[in-house]
Amino acid sequence: MRKYFGTDGIRRIANSELTPELVYKVAKAGACVLGKHEDKAPLILIGRDTRLSGGLIESAMTAGFLSYGANVIHLGIIPTPAVAYLTKKLKASASVVISASHNSYEYNGIKFFSNKGIKIDDALEEEIEEIMDSGKIDELSAVGEKIGTDKNEEEYIEEYIDFLEETFLSEIKQNLREDFTVGIDTANGATYKVAEKILKRLGIKYKIINNSPDGININKDCGSTHIEKISKFVVENKLDLGIAYDGDGDRCLAVDEKGEVIDGDKILAIISKYLKTQGKLKKDTLVATVMSNLGLNVYSKENGIELRQTKVGDRYVLEEMLKNGYNLGGEQSGHIIMLDYNPTGDGIFTSLMLITILLKTNKKASDMCKIINIYPQVLINAKVSNDKKMTYKEDADINNAIMKLEEEFAEKGRVLIRPSGTESLIRVMIEGKDEEYIHRKAKELADLIEEKLK
Question: What is the pLDDT of residue 6?
């Protein structure tokens, strides 16, 4: 079990658990591991979201990189997928995003990307941890002319915006209607500048909310974790579509013109259907995680699409895609990876793809979603001690309760119990036809887990 890294990098309370001292060590060890095959000083890009602690964490990270002898380019406040894109574009040795994604402002995190613009795998994270705890950090220090240098290049964000424009301009321009307007919620996060810029360039009319970050309002009652805000806004303003990004911009959720949620499973169905029709869905296969709704399985079978499922985490979706040559995958939470364009989840790209399909098919968003029926699904978080969340099956009462539920829902639904990779939680998910009943069953199990694993 890894000590520092979870399912999405390192994520902790800034300046308390995620201290400058820890960040410095992570940076030094990370530069060593990710730059070890370079025949010159490694070049590392740093991007961050709008959190108050971003400057603190970035300073400590920069110090670690420079002390090792790596050179740094600061990209400023920028969406995670833009960093991934620029890592490849600028041929950097690696990059790091300072963000805690959908978490509240007091958290922050560190995500490393390789020179291919993809999140580093478990083995590399374990190697970084090994160096951090080896007591050899001080030996990784450059001196004299070998000390690294850093510079600010925030204008590189324009290259990412150019990429989006080049990808979508032609089709959107051909199909854009004068009366079409989209609502946007940037969660006071990393997309707050980029979203408006690209919509203006593409000529799309929009209304925007939660677009004034102050360092502490990121994700606060807004964005993809509070989809009800954009839903209400769309209905009140009679908009055609609503989009809500998360704090670092690597995922999005949507709502139709009636305010009904279009989650990641529905987005995957819409895009896969469109790509298959175009003959562009490689191997007629879609990749999702075990958290995807049963409705996605049914949709896939009905449309001649093979559904491959992985454990939870967009990195595992990507691994499956790379391994077998698939080009579309994602998560129910809104991480959508379109590998022909960018090797990571990209909220803005996904939203522009949805808009393109909506305009090209000349349908209402609610009609577009009719290709998939979503089964009722209940997810309840059980708060537990962090040191106990991975050993929940060792408790006989919990294990017996889970087994009874799995037996009950074997033919008419699904039960999934999963420790969170980033928080002190165990997630209890049940799918079935009777929402009230499955909610009661999920709550009973979550309460038992909390009682046993305090």
Answer: 83
Strands (E), 49-189: 71-77, 94-98, 107-113, 150-152, 181-185
Residue numbers of the domain that contains 251: 159-371
Is residue 1 pLDDT above 80, yes or no?
no
CA distance 123 to 266: 33
Three-point CA angle 231, 234, 236, nearest 5°: 105
Q: What is the pLDDT of residues 282-332, one digit of tens each?
A: 999 999 998 899 899 999 999 999 999 999 888 899 999 999 999 999 999
- Tokens 């879609």 label which residue? 286
CA–CA distances in Å: residue 96 to residues 32, 70, 79: 14, 13, 12
Q: What is the pLDDT of residues 215-251, one digit of tens each?
A: 999 999 999 999 999 999 999 999 999 999 999 999 9
Look at the block and give the residue holding tokens 């393109």: 356
> What phi-psi label fits residue 267: left (phi over 0), alpha (psi between -120 and 50 degrees) or beta?
alpha
- What integer best gives the mean pLDDT of the chain? 94
The answer to whether 286 and 299 have CB atoms below 8 angstroms apart is no
Residue 267: how many other CB atoms lie within 10 Å: 27
Cα distance between residue 41 and residue 29, in whole Å: 15
Helix (H, G, I), strand (E, B) or coil at 191: coil
Q: Which runs of E-coded beta strand occur in 136-211?
A: 150-152, 181-185, 205-209
* β partners of residue 310: 289
Look at the chain and report how many structural domains it folds into. Answer: 3
- pTM for this one? 0.88
Determine contact, residues 272/328, Cβ cutoff 8 Å.
yes
Distance, in Å, from the CA atom of 7 to the CA atom of 423, rounded to the nearest integer, reads 10
**DSSP state letter for 135:** T
**Residue 54, pLDDT above cutoff 70:** yes
> Which sequence positions are flagged as catalytic?
101
383 with 361, same domain?
Answer: no
Which CATH number characterizes residue 81's domain?
Answer: 3.40.120.10
Q: How many CA atoms lie within 13 A of 136 on its CB side?
A: 8
Same domain membership, residue 122 and residue 62:
yes
**108-156 pLDDT, tens per residue?**
999 999 999 999 988 999 999 999 998 888 889 999 999 999 999 999 9
Cα(305)–Cα(449) distance, integer angstroms? 37
> Given 351, 371, 391, which residue is the final one in a domain?
371
